[in-house]
Amino acid sequence: MIDDRPVMLITGGSRGIGAATARLAASRGYAVAINYRAEREAAERLVAEIESKGAVAWAIQADIGVEAEIEAMFAALDARFGRLDVLVNNAGIVDQVCRVEAMSFERVERMMRINVAGPFICAREAIKRMALQHGGKGGAIVNVSSAAAHRGGANEYVDYAASKGAIDTFSEGLAKELASDGIRVNVVRPGVIRTEIHASGGRPDKPEQSAKGIPLGRAGEVEEIAGGILWLASSEASFTTGAVLDIDGGV
Fold first, then answer.
1. Per-10-residue mean pLDDT for the chain, 251 residues long?
2. Which domain holds residue 237?
3. Which residue intervals make up region (Disordered) (predicted)?
4. 30 assigned to active site
């Protein structure tokens, strides 16, 4: 452990919402562990940026769709910091726009493995370190869902929407399960946000195209989601668990 500052682990932290969360958390005194799967250069640039401002950051590679890699990541976190105070389950994928009748088993299995099973296993490992019954001091888990969870993703990505619906239900149950262990569990549910994820789904222009259907008239920015995550992680939300915070422009 390098000092007494709280430690936040952010999965999928090298870009988009994860990177914005890392920057904000570091500015508020967290030591930030930035998980990435393949974007090593982006993660290391982010670490250098944060450290240049006198804060503490560390990049750690792990595929959130592989249990052994998750376990190795948490073991490395133990060796590096010796504590964990906040887990942000942010890593996730979206696939190409597709109707359900054209989806392969492999696509759906990959979606659920990364977007659902991965956060489950990350939460499992975080609980072992934070729960009072395991000798921890409590903490917070913030799961990143999506407005698609309640809108359904019809004609685009019902599989993605279903995976995020699973995260919402998982979070509600986990919040009740962990309340007596000093761990709060909450959800941030972004709407359409300007991130690279839309390009990976074949819709790089989605933020602009969606603006007219959003009551506030625009897509959101990653910093707006990061602000919600940091609030739920903070002592200001000490009486908040099992909540879903919609940050979606009113959809």
1. 85 97 98 96 98 98 98 98 98 95 98 98 98 98 97 95 98 98 98 73 68 90 97 98 97 89
2. 7-247
3. 196-217
4. no
